[in-house]
Amino acid sequence: RTIGDRIGEAKASGNLGNTLKILGQFDEAVVCCQRHLDISQEQGDKVGEARALYNIGNVYHAKGKHLSWNMAQDPGYLPQEVKETLQKASEYYERNLSLVKELGDRAAQGRAYGNLGNTQYLLGNFSEAIAFHKERLAIAKEFGDKAAERRAYSNLGNAHIFLGRFDISAEYYRKTLQLSRQLKDQAVEAQACYSLGNTYTLLQDYERAIEYHLKHLVIAQELGDR
């Protein structure tokens, strides 16, 4: 501010916002991220503007998750305050998405799609969530980003469960399992086995359910995860 560096001030405000978000000070975080947005727009800095929109989305997303953790409920069954917070997150992600499309930034589009999928899932809009996660999946494959691909499969599996499409969920969870093994991520592998066990229980294929729950158990024991 002293040297009149507006872009520098915008970036610093954004960093402050992100830090306050991590500290759980969501309302202060929004103020700082909004300053990042305002200055970026004033300076015609499209990249900064996109980043600020994404960061504000993240603050509302984190706030919504934080509020809903205190009330263990299924996606979709949310108190008004939580719903409004997640809808705000979604709006900012949408604005970010249209801007990064304009900028031709595919990686940023992938991140926006993933987060839109997650917020729509929490809001109980499972069909919308699926559409966004499919976009996320396509971009992850484009970039050969196996970790993002794995997350997209997981999220697609979860959303299909709530639509009662258990067989499709099982397919996605199997792909999650395959990738978690490729990535040598045992905790995620255990989670995928757990999800498959539950899905096969819903499909009334109990032999298979037992098989996956036993695999889950073995990994949990290996990891010493009580």
TrEMBL record:
A Gene Ontology cellular-component term: plasma membrane
Domain of life: Eukaryota
Keywords linked to the UniProt accession: Cell membrane, Cytoplasm, Membrane, Phosphoprotein, Repeat, TPR repeat
Localization per record: Cell membrane; Cytoplasm
Gene Ontology biological process terms from the UniProt entry: establishment of mitotic spindle orientation
PROSITE patterns: TPR
Recorded GO MF terms: G-protein alpha-subunit binding; GDP-dissociation inhibitor activity
Pfam families listed in its UniProt record: TPR_12 (PF13424)
Keyword Cell membrane annotated: yes
Main location: membrane
Repeat (TPR) residue spans along the chain: 150-183
SUPFAM superfamilies: TPR-like
PANTHER family linked to this entry: G-PROTEIN-SIGNALING MODULATOR 1, LD33695P
UniProt record similarity statement: Belongs to the GPSM family.
Protein name: GPSM1 protein
Species: Probosciger aterrimus
Gene that this polypeptide is encoded by: Gpsm1
